[in-house]
TrEMBL record:
<feature type="domain" description="TonB-dependent receptor plug">
    <location>
        <begin position="50"/>
        <end position="153"/>
    </location>
</feature>
<dbReference type="GO" id="GO:0015344">
    <property type="term" value="F:siderophore uptake transmembrane transporter activity"/>
</dbReference>
<feature type="domain" description="TonB-dependent receptor-like beta-barrel">
    <location>
        <begin position="200"/>
        <end position="615"/>
    </location>
</feature>
<dbReference type="Pfam" id="PF07715">
    <property type="entry name" value="Plug"/>
</dbReference>
<dbReference type="Pfam" id="PF00593">
    <property type="entry name" value="TonB_dep_Rec_b-barrel"/>
</dbReference>
<comment type="similarity">
    <text>Belongs to the TonB-dependent receptor family.</text>
</comment>
<dbReference type="InterPro" id="IPR036942">
    <property type="entry name" value="Beta-barrel_TonB_sf"/>
</dbReference>
<keyword id="KW-0675">Receptor</keyword>
<keyword id="KW-0732">Signal</keyword>
<feature type="signal peptide">
    <location>
        <begin position="1"/>
        <end position="19"/>
    </location>
</feature>
<dbReference type="InterPro" id="IPR037066">
    <property type="entry name" value="Plug_dom_sf"/>
</dbReference>
<keyword id="KW-1134">Transmembrane beta strand</keyword>
<dbReference type="GO" id="GO:0044718">
    <property type="term" value="P:siderophore transmembrane transport"/>
</dbReference>
<keyword id="KW-0998">Cell outer membrane</keyword>
<keyword id="KW-0813">Transport</keyword>
<keyword id="KW-0812">Transmembrane</keyword>
<dbReference type="InterPro" id="IPR039426">
    <property type="entry name" value="TonB-dep_rcpt-like"/>
</dbReference>
């Protein structure tokens, strides 16, 4: 397989027929990316190079280099961002930024906190790529503007403007594993004052595959539908009014190969079956006043009907959010004032909620961006929230930006973050498998203190363009809450850390355009994420020390052909073992997922694309005696326990194991081909 990749690179470099017009277009694309309007860093539109908070921007063109069925999978080629699979059976997932667990990442849709709490587990897979205008990534705490959950960073998914979207678009692809994904978009003008965008996504995977022969599905089967509708209204005052809604339904299951719905909830054949029904409403209204004032709102209703073997998990969550902002300029001061209110109503059938858990969190925030001249500017900000369960929470921030006459940008950011924990909604490892869940006390909010330094520079060498963006960070956590798999192999223990946690590292992104038509987007991250309790320092579970991503593109205009080679590389991670005799290694091996795609653009309005995913055919089960612990006895019917509840070593169970699918960190899906077609009118 490595030989094939080498030959592929030889093929790339053998071509040098690349028109100067195409080269100029790529150079302009890089400039446009740098000067694109972003909003996530300061909650107001600003040129990316002028933002005091570093914001990374990714467009649909970037994600099309490795076509995927949803945003969760698409982020696998973004440096410092890793989609983490948390369960071998149900394939729950979350998004890590700079090594921090998924609940530390705040996911927004059009600036609204739609994906949170219960929806963080399965909701990310239901956001179709066809709706995306761009994705903005902020690494580091952003709680002073966005409140709870924005501790490690945020991902803001900006949906398309109906005025600018194609009248009709379709994107359909399938894989050799039997996956089929369909995206359809329709945009139209309704009357004289409204524009409508309709997006429909359907994904289906109904082909059970067991390549590693453990009698469990390698990939969760899914039947998923999503309908999105967005309205933009034109008002006489040219004030903004936009409203959108989405409905999402998914039926997914994973388990033993002979499982069917007749076994759902029983203890005869093991399966994890999840029905998810969800609808969302969000909007923004610019008030008809002389000042620049916006009222934004969102509401999400999430209903999950699920069973994990014979353990039912029935959960409902309602999240309402409203926010009023006032954007005010006064001299060299660019100020923003805001008031927000968040309401969460959560109920499930677990011991976590004997009754409905209702949380209210009003908050106010302010920031002042002061420009001293063209080179120097600072930002001062603070937020105050009141949580009805935890009381007052205060989060300040500070930022400084220096821009040289040559366009070099240096940014220094310091801030704090906080997170109110929703245990069962965020970590379904607490439900999957045979481990008992132990919560030692009332969990207090986590707090973080962060310092981030970043540098951005461009070089031009004739027809070659190079852009470097590098950053280093240090984050200190108190009251950290991490699942403890080590103290007792039969338990997952949740408690506030009696000590502190640290995340620190350095990251760099390089964009390079060469005159021969090659374009490179390469990123790398080195980091150390650890905890220290009672003087003992330990590396955090499921966190790599180094990672890398790349996207290599080559265009051949004479053949109407684009070639994309994408991939990632991750270093070893510490994994949860079930017992001290567990024969699986404590650390994962270094691994890489690599993909190749060819796109033909010779037809009017049509594109045909195809390629190979996971070229190296890597899966987490490679070189392991087994991936899922006790897959042959998922209900632990033949496990013997001592008086303390620990599994005994017996002839049938020589390693003293119980059933556990949490020894995983990536999809157990091997090499596969794909073929698709896109149409835009």
């Amino acid at each position: 397989m490595n030989c094939k990749i080498f030959l592929f690179f030889c093929f790339l470099f053998s071509f040098s027929v690349f028109s100067q017009v195409e080269q100029d277009t790529l150079t302009n694309d890089m400039d446009d990316t740098l000067e694109e309007i972003v909003i996530s860093g300061t909650m107001k539109p600003v040129l990316r190079s002028e933002s005091l908070v570093p914001v990374e921007v990714y467009t649909p063109t970037f994600f099309k280099k490795n076509p995927t069925a949803n945003v969760f999978e698409a982020l696998q080629i973004v440096n410092g961002v890793r989609p983490q699979v948390n369960c071998s059976v149900c394939n729950t997932g979350d998004i890590h930024i700079n090594g921090l667990e998924g609940p530390y990442t705040f996911v927004l849709i059009d600036g609204m906190p739609i994906v949170s709490g219960l929806s963080t587990v399965y909701g990310l897979s239901g956001i179709p790529n066809s709706l995306i205008e761009r994705v903005e990534v902020v690494k580091g705490p952003a709680s002073s503007l966005y409140g709870s959950e924005a501790v490690g960073g945020l991902i803001n998914i900006i949906t398309k403007n109906p005025k600018n979207a194609p009248l009709f678009s379709a994107d359909v692809f399938g894989t050799s594993w039997g996956e089929v994904n369909t995206d359809i978009g329709v945009s139209t003008k309704v009357g004289e004052k409204a524009h409508l965008l309709l997006g429909i996504n359907y994904f289906n995977y109904s082909n059970p595959i067991d390549k590693n022969n453990d009698n469990f599905t390698d990939l969760t089967l899914q039947d998923r539908s999503s309908v999105f509708q967005k309205w933009n209204f034109t008002r006489k005052s040219n004030k903004l009014f936009s409203v959108a809604g989405r409905y999402f339904y998914e039926d997914r299951w994973g388990g033993e190969m002979n499982w069917n719905k007749n076994y759902r909830g029983g203890d005869e054949v093991y399966g994890e079956s999840i029905y998810t029904s969800r609808y969302e409403l969000m909007g923004t209204y610019e008030l008809p006043v002389a000042e620049k004032m916006f009222f934004s709102f969102s509401y999400a209703d999430h209903d999950q009907n699920s069973v994990y073997g014979n353990i039912p998990y029935m959960a409902k969550q309602k999240v309402g959010f409203g926010q009023l902002t006032w954007d005010k300029k006064l001299g060299n001061h660019d100020m923003l004032f805001g008031a927000a209110f968040r309401y969460t109503n959560y109920d499930d059938n677990t011991p976590a909620t004997n009754d409905k858990d209702i949380t209210t969190m009003p908050g106010i925030f302010a920031q002042d961006e002061i420009s001293f001249n063209n080179k120097h500017s600072i930002l001062l900000g603070a937020r105050y929230d009141y949580n009805n369960n935890h009381g007052s929470i205060f989060t300040p921030r500070f930022a400084y930006r220096y821009k040289s006459e040559k366009g070099d940008v240096l940014r220094l950011n310091a801030g704090t973050g906080f997170r109110v924990v929703n245990l069962f909604t965020e970590d379904h490892a607490a439900l999957s498998g045979a481990r008992d869940v132990i919560v030692l006390e009332d969990l207090k909010p986590e707090k973080s203190y962060n310092l981030n330094l970043s540098y951005l520079k461009q070089w031009y060498f004739g027809s070659n363009v190079l852009q470097l963006e590098a950053s280093t960070w240090y984050t200190y956590f108190t009251n950290a809450i991490l699942p403890d798999y080590d103290t007792n192999p039969n338990q997952i223990i949740y408690d506030n850390l009696n000590g502190h946690a640290i995340s620190q590292g350095i990251s760099a992104n390089i964009d390079l355009i060469l005159g021969n038509g090659l374009k490179f987007i390469v990123g790398g991250t080195l980091m150390d994420v650890s905890t220290e309790e009672e003087g003992v320092k330990q590396r955090q579970m499921l966190t790599e020390r180094f990672s890398g991503t790349w996207a290599v593109s080559y265009s051949i205009p004479s053949f109407n052909l684009d070639i994309d080679y994408t991939g990632n590389l991750y270093g070893p991670m510490r994994l949860p073992l079930v017992s001290e005799w567990d024969p699986r290694p404590e650390y994962s091996e270094t691994y890489s997922i690599q993909n190749i795609q060819l796109t033909y653009k010779g037809f009017k309005n049509f594109q045909i694309y195809g390629g190979v995913k996971n070229l190296l055919n890597w899966t987490p089960s490679k070189n392991l005696p087994f991936l899922i612990s006790r897959a042959n006895d998922p209900f632990d019917k033949n496990v013997q326990f001592d008086p303390n509840g620990d599994a005994l070593r017996t002839t049938d169970n020589p390693y003293g194991l119980v059933f556990d699918p949490s020894y995983v960190y990536a999809a157990n899906q091997g090499i596969r081909t794909f073929l698709g077609v896109r149409y835009n009118f």
